[in-house]
Automatic annotation (TrEMBL):
It comes from the Bacteria. Gene3D superfamilies: Zn-dependent exopeptidases (3.40.630.40). It holds the Pfam family FGase. This is N-formylglutamate amidohydrolase. InterPro entries: N-FG_amidohydro (IPR007709).
């Protein structure tokens, strides 16, 4: 794996060079084995938390882990294009707009003992900016090559906090162009239901049941492209014990191995039934 600056990553994307790199500031990773029409993202996978912020933070490492999306990068790591955050959303949230990316409180609990300095805030916002500069270059390249693309935006959520039955997988579609893309969203939801999980966990899936796809990653890509579909996909944390801070690697592995096939098949259908049928490939 290389360590590259934002400008170096963007240059390689412009030249269509395959690479696997960590950003110069160690805030995110990007793997491109080949330039294709589908991208996988895990913006909340990270748990890193800048050391200068530790003493000022009122939330424990467990508090942060509980609200992060551990293992979401692993679930999609077998795919040819994968971008993933390394920093905790408690430092800055890549799934929020810049003006909202730095939390003052989180899930009803004050986050900082004393307000962050302007310098501390800017350090985090600069990382947010660099991430989206690379995202913009990557999505632009996808549309340049294929006229369209599909992004699998992977998240997780704490199912035990709900006071009603919730699906193992939720797909948020509120902010996509449903006139053009709902059939592909429904097909994705239906294909996810076929995942077989250990321990007799029944794989249920729903659309806009728990979350509606309001994240900035989805909105940014949708607003800055013409034909790219983003599918905000949330796995409930059936792959860990969210209260006891324990991961179940056999469940994570089962998801990864099956997503490898399901995701590529779905992306291929999108290519055939949207990109080719609408004659979007550049001449």
């Amino acid at each position: 794996m290389l360590r590259l600056s934002t400008q170096e990553m963007i240059a390689k994307i412009g030249n269509e060079e395959p690479f696997h790199a960590v950003s110069e500031d160690y805030s995110f990773t990007l793997k491109i084995e080949e330039y294709t029409y589908f991208l996988c993202g895990a913006v909340h996978d990270g748990h890193q938390f800048r050391k200068e912020l530790w003493k000022n933070c009122l939330h424990t490492a467990y508090d942060r882990w509980y609200e992060e999306d551990p293992c979401t990068k692993q679930m999609i790591q077998s795919n040819p294009m994968v971008i993933a955050g390394m920093d905790s959303r408690f430092e800055y949230d890549l799934n929020r707009a810049p003006e909202m990316a730095i939390y003052e409180d989180a899930w009803g609990k004050k986050l900082w003992r004393t307000p962050l300095s302007e310098d501390q805030v800017q350090k985090s916002l600069d990382k947010h900016t660099r991430f989206y500069q690379v995202v913009h270059a990557l999505i632009s390249k996808m549309e340049e090559k294929f006229g369209s693309g599909i992004v699998y935006d992977m998240h997780s959520y704490n199912w035990k906090r709900w006071d009603r039955p919730v699906p193992v997988i939720n797909l948020g579609t509120k902010n996509i162009d449903n006139d053009r893309f709902f059939a592909f969203a429904k097909a994705w939801c239906d294909s996810l239901k076929t995942i077989k999980l250990p321990h007799d966990i029944e794989t249920t899936a729903g659309i806009n049941d728990t979350f509606h796809g309001n994240g900035y990653f989805l909105k940014y890509i949708t607003e800055n492209t013409k034909n790219t579909l983003v599918l905000a996909t949330e796995f409930s944390k059936i792959y860990c014990d969210e209260y006891d801070y324990i991961l179940y690697p056999e469940v994570v592995n089962a998801i990864e191995q099956q997503l490898k096939l399901i995701l590529r098949n779905h992306a291929t259908t999108f290519y055939n039934d949207f990109i080719l049928k609408n004659d979007l490939l550049p001449d």
